[in-house]
Amino acid sequence: MSLRRTLEENVFGPFDLNEVLDEYITHKRQAPVDLHRLEVVRNGRASGLDESEASISKTHGKVRYFGTLYIEDLNWISPKGRSLIHDDMQRRGLNLTLESIYGPDRPGGGLTVKIGITLSAVHGKSGSKYIGLTYLTDTKIPGEMLLFSLTTGMSTRRLRIVSLSPTCWIKSQDYIAAYRFWRFVLDICTGISKPTPENFLNAYIDHQTKAGMRVCKGTVVEMMLKHAAWLAEAAKRHVNVQSWKDFARTGILDIDEELDAEMDEREITSHLLRPTPSTLATRSISPKRKRLRSIGSQSSLEYVSNDQPLDYESDRESSPERSPSPPLTDPYVAARIPSAFRYTPRVPDNFHWWCDVEGCHYNVDLLNLTRDDLTMLDGETAAKLRLQDWSLSDLWVRLAFKEMVEEHRVEHLKSWGLRCLKGPSGVCRSRPPPSRGPSLMIFNL
Predict the structure, then answer these.
(1) Where are the beta strands (DSSP E) in 102-250?
(2) Using only C-alpha atoms, what is the Rg of the chain?
(3) 0.70 cut: is pTM over it?
(4) Which one of 51, 182, 184, 228 counts the least CB within 10 Å of its CB?
(5) Tell me: the pLDDT tens digits for 312-321?
């Protein structure tokens, strides 16, 4: 076998990813490096992505990733990585240098350097502070599976997963299927100028990429009709794409704690399929259903004009003949509230949330909580978060995150002249602007 053929099949390592890749990959190169044959080892046994979704697991720090990096440019390798590869070459009897074998000046062009890497979440001066996976959700590379790691130096590295090992592929079917379905729903619900049955049918057929798995058009039409009948069981509805994404990520529906154990199959379906605004005014909604908030859906903001007297529960009890004033939009108050404040805060994929207000540098890092962050929570919740023995599927984690974020948002509201009163819903009163009286805003906290 020729030396070139030997080097093409040779894989150096394995080495730690953070020791091999240069900082150039993190700060200057836009496209991620290719990683082949990803393997996942969990508690010493071969695992898959079904058990390693981007969330903190009960065995945090015991999940390791293995794979083979394909390096096309020697500048991507750090000085320490070059030293490790050189020592490996010497042990294998290759008395050569990286430049003489893989350099671009070599006759016939340079070869691709194949380096085996390991990656695990550790706490210390070196290693990765956090490791996560995204599939079909990245905004810059939406059609790929990416593995990203946040180093202890707060640098983010991204790797494009080209292939999975056979064992990892077998144990990743649920993960892949969930995100493929979410992406399919997203593509179907967006980018269609005329949402006719023919548009949906053609979009579905276009997504059948494997010719050997194609089905006839009549079968697709039948499946579409059954799916449409399910979606429109009682009234016209539209798909809440964000809820499907959250369901794919955590495996559960993010609902209020008081309803978590009470929801039946019909209520779960109603959570994933929100009624269109045209049906809200005509349908009767039970008090329990009114309390159901879909994560990602617009939170309720109601503006009350200062021209009408305030309507309190105690007043209604003492004066039954008095009818509540109709809510009116107050443009002045609405203009002072950022659009992000109208939505329920959601945990980012990297667990690091930054304030939406321009110029504000406040942030909440769930993997590195500060003393100020924890002062907003009760002692038991703060202690459990510090242990990092939790998952996004735990309702109390999402509620704690929501409390920390909304506590900070209240501070912004106060700084803008909105006085917030504690209660079932936060009530914020603004200072009167020029030539206007005071305005009142009901803010859903």
Answers:
(1) 113-120, 128-135, 145-151, 156-161
(2) 27
(3) no
(4) 228
(5) 444 444 444 4
